[in-house]
């Protein structure tokens, strides 16, 4: 099973000679409909989004990471998923603030909390190409 932690398996595979363009360049990879639920806690969801973003940002073949949902869906919540960056009433979850700052100069300040949740000392220790 491929997930964000091992997404490099896909990009490494696609880097092979058989998958390169005629000019020898590698293809672009876009990750869409990526979602992480907050049912285990909003900090866990926000940490997962930060981790996914840094993995995608630092992988030279990944050119896009599209988060699944801006606002939680009541139907999905009834099925155990709350993948929105906002609650059903539109109020912001922790994931919203983290996502908002991910590509800004202060992103590491907003994501430092996630290292404890993930169990890492630094982003560079767990993100390839850092």
Description:
This protein has helices at residues 8-14, 42-58, 74-78, 94-101, 107-118; strands at residues 29-34, 62-67, 69-71, 84-86. α2 (42-58) packs parallel to α4. The protein is globular and about 50 Å long. The strands form two sheets. It has a two-stranded parallel ribbon. It is an alpha/beta fold and 130 residues long. α2 links the parallel β1 and β2. The protein starts with 7 loop residues before the first helix and ends in a 12-residue tail after the last helix. The protein contains five helices and four strands, in the order αβαββαβαα.
- Unreliable stretches covering 5 or more consecutive residues: none
Radius of gyration: 16 Å
Strand content: 5-15%
Would you count the extended β strands for me? 4
Helix content: 25-40%
As laid out across the biggest beta sheet, the strand order is 1-2
**What is the distance, rounded to the nearest whole angstrom, between the alpha carbons of the first and last residues?**
24 Å
Q: Helical stretch count? A: 5
For the sheet with most strands, the description reads: 2 strands, parallel
Q: Average pLDDT value? A: 95
Query: What series of H and E elements makes up the topology?
Result: HEHEEHEHH
Structural class: alpha/beta
Shape: globular
